[in-house]
Amino acid sequence: MKSRIIFLLLSAAILAGAFALSGRLESGEDAPAQSGDEVTIAVATDLHYIAPELTDKGEYFTNLVTDADGKVMLYIDELVRAFAEQIIAEQPDALILSGDLSFNGETASHEALASILSEVEASGVPVYVMPGNHDMNSSMAARFEGDGYELVSSPSEGEFAQIYYEFGYSEAISRDEKSLSYAAQLAPGLRLVMLDVNTRSNPGYVLDSTFDWLEEQLRDAREAGERVIAVSHQNIYPHNSYFTSGYIIGNGGTLHSLYAEYGVLCNLAGHIHLQHCMSEGGAPEIVTSSLAVNPNQYGVLTVRGRNGQYNTESVDVSSWAEAEGLANEALLNFDEYSERFFYDTAVQQGLDELGGEGERETELARFYAMANTLYFAGLNNQIEWDEDAMDEWSERGFFIPRYLETIRLDSERNYTRFEF
Questions:
Q1: Burial level of 115, CB count in 10 A (0-12/13-18/19+)?
Q2: Which of 18, 84, 86, 248 is most open to solvent, judged by the fewest CB atoms within 10 Å of its CB?
Q3: What CATH number is given to the structural domain containing 146?
Q4: Which is more confidently placed, 21 or 318?
Q5: Residue 400 is assigned to a structural domain of this protein
Q6: Do residues 192 and 183 make contact, with C-beta atoms less than 8 angstroms apart?
Q7: How many CA atoms lie within 13 A of 50 on its CB side?
Q8: pLDDT in tens, 197-214
Q9: Is residue 265 in some structural domain?
Q10: Which domain holds residue 201?
């Protein structure tokens, strides 16, 4: 039950109002090309990777992930390897991973992921990583076997930077002394700022000294005539008006003002596992959904001058599995498996809240699961609202009807496409 409550809280971490976007969300057609050099950036977040040697996919682990938040943890190794192969084939100018790289901060998971990323780098695609709230100093890092688990090591900040030294830290043109924040040159005239807000001393906040370092980077970029793309794990803006604590950066308002003052192009984030974009009169924030949840997508941002065009792409696990000669049915039909897994998880959430599994309870739970699945995928425009179901949820439920209202109050847009 505890893990289900956690999932509901995470599911609710979304926008409840219609906010003005500084960019334009697209319904499908391509935007006209802009002048200037073009830079293509792939961005993924919340991989929650666990090394294969840390789980036998036995009873305990299977029950844990089935009763959680819809992450496809039973096939996370295959998913991440298929993702790496897809990035190698597409050859973007850079790959950014914005935190929660590991399941629960296991050192072995970070080391195994770094090995996969080294293949991406070897193909000519530079990789830039940053930590999320799951990645370091974790008391939940564990190996799962049979009907139990045992705790394993989790890296310190220094160990994290050492494991991922070749993926951003070695290329840094500047590193913050008090956090794992760094700046790097993405391309001529385009600077990347990776802002770590998951320090042990003040998690969820930008340190005062880090603000000083950040403003120095923004000032240097402006004086050099460079554009800036910022990245954080947690969000600057309240993509969730129902729950905000723990999801948005504690002093994000100061960050918002600083980015507006220096004309930062956009902030790329994750953390809430939801596909969404918004702005509050400053730099637009693009939140890419978790790679580990349906539809297992990542973002592709193309920058031309001060203009950007963003869209999502799903990982083609099935084609990868077929090429690898794997006979696993779930992998060979991965899109269907992943969507059904996420949907069924939400159905169970609905049944739990309704306290029954009768015919009407099942219908209401399925309505909730439909809306939740499309919302997390960023496909608000595809949700079909059933007023009778909404009315009955209001009479019988507590959390879910309020959550559904936050979905309905959000804009009926396709959040998988955005331009600024």
A1: exposed
A2: 18
A3: 3.60.21.10
A4: 318
A5: no
A6: yes
A7: 24
A8: 999 999 999 999 999 999
A9: yes
A10: 27-319
Which structure tokens are listed for 112?
Answer: 């195994």
Residue 194 binned pLDDT confidence (cut-offs 50, 70, 90): very high
Cα–Cα distance list, 411 to 14, 19, 268, 294, 408 (Å): 12, 8, 20, 21, 8
pLDDT at 136: 97
Q: Which of 270, 251, 259, 269 is CA-nearest to residue 203?
A: 251
The three-state secondary structure class of 191 is: strand
In which residue are the tokens 């604590």 written? 245
Nearest to 241 by CA among 73, 6, 17: 17
Q: pTM surpassing 0.85?
A: yes
283 half-sphere exposure, CB direction, 13 A CA radius: 29
Please indicate, yes or no, if residue 233 is contained in any of the structural domains.
yes
Round the CA-based radius of gyration of the chain to a whole number and report it: 21
DSSP-assigned letters across all residues of 340-374: HHHHHHHHHHHHHHHT--SHHHHHHHHHHHHHHHH
Average pLDDT over residues 231-252: 86
* Domain count within the chain: 1
Average pLDDT value for residue range 306-319? 98
Please check whether residue 312 is in contact with residue 416, taking contact to mean a CB–CB distance below 8 angstroms: yes
Task: Look at the chain and count its residues.
Answer: 420
Q: Is 47 exposed, middle or buried (0-12, 13-18, 19+ CB in 10 A)?
A: buried
In a domain, 143, yes or no: yes
Which of these, 117, 81, 112, 119, lies nearest to 331 by C-alpha position? 81
- Written as one letter, the residue type at 404 is L
Comparing CA positions, the residue from 18, 24, 28 lying closest to residue 408 is 18
